[in-house]
Amino acid sequence: MSVLSLRPPQWTSHRRLLEQKLVDLHRCSDYDHLRQIQAQILKADLHRDLFVAPKLISAYSLCRQVLPAVAVFRQVPFPNAHLYNVLIRAFADNSQPSLAFSTFCQMQKDGIFPDKFTYSCLLRGCSGTSSFSRVLMIHAHVLKFGFLSDIFVPNALIDSYSKTSAAGFAEAKKVFDGMPEKDVVSWNSILAGAVRAGEVAEARQLFDEMPERDIISWNTLLDGLAKAGEMESVFDLFGRMPERNVVSWSTILSGYCKSGDLEMARDLFDKMPVKNLVTWTIIITGYAEKGQAKEASRLLDQMEEASLEFDVAATVSILAACAESGLLSLGKRIHSYVKRSKLRLSTHVSNALIDMYSKCGCIDKAWSVFKELVDRDLVSWNCVIQGLAVHGHGKRALSLFARMKMEGIRPNAVTFIGVLCACTHMGLVEDARSFFYSMETDYGIVPQIEHYGCMIDVLGRVGFLHEAFHLAKTMPSEPNAIIWCSLLNACRLHNNVGLAEEAVNQLVKFEPSDAGNYAILSNIYAAAKQWEGVAKARTKMKGIGRPKPAGSSWIELGDTVHEFTAGDRKHPQTTRIFKMLDKLSHHIVQVGHAPKEMAMLPQ
């Protein structure tokens, strides 16, 4: 009996080909390509299919396009639990936890019962202090319907609780301790929670108690120790790791950079078996933060030779380091790279450039970047308003604030810091009052200590000392050292001895070892010819003992950062510098400036 061999047909239907193409649809991150695929899905009448629709929603979520994802969901006449779960996850992954929660509620109204995956999808969007109450509600729901016995759900609860607050970590511990069975995910979740809460000792204990560990366990504790600055322990743990990956190397590298030990960081970087964009960013940022422009630039050359391209996160990180250390040359180089790449389209990168140029004193450059930016967000406006205010362009800052509101951009707390700063530099006390009190009445923004500090500063500068002191004493939180220092300087500016004494008495509570406060008080006494007060202040200064470390400033010339400390003569060009200072001082006197009398005890 012969057996006929059956061969598959040589043709395949268009629908079948499309279904094969849709297997990996949920991984598609190209929005334009995704729209083309959706058109084919509609043509094949597959848009209501319970296999296709979830994949399409996931793909739109990956492209950060939530509205088309919702439209896909609404086209399915009878959604099941899986489809609801996918939409909930899309909202959660795109920072819309409220919509995720409302979808969860709608799911139950439609008679669809949640499953264990529903809760994990819902909890993905719960992080930050504002989510604590929401996690409590989800937890109560889980208990009510008996899903806590499935290890998948308590693991998600532990993770979400620990991402909210210290109170959340305490709740996470309760869930963890109540679990009859725990897997390595349970242990890793609570370990990560301890690290987030800054409970390093507890993290160590949990790590030691773990019945089994994976690479995530080791990296989590390594990260906790590095963030706590315990670099000896980090080095020891790194040496004991049974295996290491690029995350392990990146963590220890970041730890040494942040601790200021660039020599050790560079040694580790050079020994790394595999380097990626993250590790290059860490080491370049480390050198930039320390003002070492030449080495940071040299590393940039090596990175380009390795054919690595910057992404948004790397660019923003290095620009932030340039902003803090004043490395204008490196910042300009990054800007040149941005202009030649797709990064020029990124609002995040443009915002970082505005911030960098502002902090490096190039406010015109910052303004140019802002003007060229098409998709401005609130951060863009805040950066340029703050930059203009700090550099004495208060009028332009306030004009821009008015324009921002006209364009429908709602200000936030950061915006008002820039606005109040502009008023401070211009002495616009009435405008400052108006803006300060409008924060809560017009925008529902409760003024924070930074806003009170700005308001107190502007009142002090124009001489409204009693109002400034009253505001400091009646503000909701305790005034900090910065506010009392601002008040003391205002007293010096307006020669108010009585209030200056009060400010110093408050300052010594914060800075008992800072003799500089008594030096200012001594000068105020001297200006008022109260020599007995000068003598008392000088006696206090001597009694303090070790002075506060002198402040320093720096400037970048070429590729070198020159640092200057008060009273320091270590700079190789000290003689020339002081000659120039003498020349400038003489010129200042000639044009009519009379320097203030320094406090001196009478002979």
Give a summary of the structure in a few sentences.
GO terms for molecular function: RNA binding. The protein has 603 residues and is mainly α. It has 33 helices and two strands.
Overall description:
The protein is an all-alpha fold. 67% of the residues lie in helices and 2% in strands. The protein has 33 helices and two strands. The chain has helices at 14-21, 31-43, 52-62, 66-74, 81-93, 97-109, 116-123, 132-145, 152-162, 166-177, 184-196, 200-209, 215-227, 231-240, 246-258, 262-271, 277-289, 293-305, 312-325, 328-339, 347-359, 363-372, 378-390, 394-406, 413-426, 429-443, 449-461, 465-474, 481-493, 497-510, 516-527, 531-544, 574-590; strands at residues 552-557, 560-565. Strands 1-2 form a two-stranded antiparallel ribbon. Strand 1 and strand 2 form a beta hairpin. The N and C termini lie far apart (131 Å). Mean pLDDT is 88; it is low at 1-6 and 598-603. One of its GO terms (molecular function) is RNA binding. Keywords: Repeat.
